[in-house]
Every structure is written in C-alpha cells, then in structure tokens.
Amino acid sequence: MTRPKTDATKPKTAKKSSAGTGLKSKKKLSPYNKFMKTELAKVKKNNPGLPHKDAFKKAAQNWATSAENPKGPNAANK
To answer: What residue spans carry the region label Disordered (predicted)?
Structure first.
C-alpha cells in the first residue's frame, strides 16, 4: 500500500529573515572560507586540468601553512 504524497500539495514559501525583509542576510565568511574561495581559484588557474576534488584538497593543504590561518604554525602563540 502506498501513501499519497502530501508535499506536492503544499505551496513553497521563501525563507524570511527576522527583519521581515523577505530575504536572508548573508552570513559573514570565516577566515577559512575566505581563504578557500581565493586559494581554490589560484590552484585551478595554475592547474587547469586538475579535477575539482584534487584542487580542493591542495587548497586545504595550503591552509595548514597559511599566514591567514589563526591556528596554523605561523599564528602567534597564545
């Protein structure tokens, strides 16, 4: 016995922000996200034939030694 799908009858609604503007505000990017956004572009530019998965791995490895990484080896000791 199969059940009828109830989701098909529900109207889709847009998610609203708490301000009531009807649009969600963008979340501030973390230092990692900022780094990965630019670093991934650099890696892909320097290695155009590299698959995305491998380019992402290389960019993530670069994060480990980056000066932008607050927990990396170049970070100030707290």
So the answer is: 1-31, 43-78
Vertex 19: Cα angle to 15 and 20 (nearest 5) = 55
pTM: 0.59
Q: Which of 25-29, 44-48, 55-59 has the lowest mean pLDDT?
A: 25-29
**22 in Cβ contact with 14 (< 8 Å):** yes
Residue-range domain boundaries for the chain:
37-68
SS3 content of the chain, % helix, strand, coil (to 5): 40, 0, 60
Whether 49 contacts 41, CB under 8 Å: no
Would you state the structure tokens that stand for residue 39, as one six-digit string?
């670093």
pLDDT digits (tens, 9 = 90+) for 65-77: 999 988 887 766 5
Q: Are 40 and 55 in contact (CB under 8 A)?
A: yes
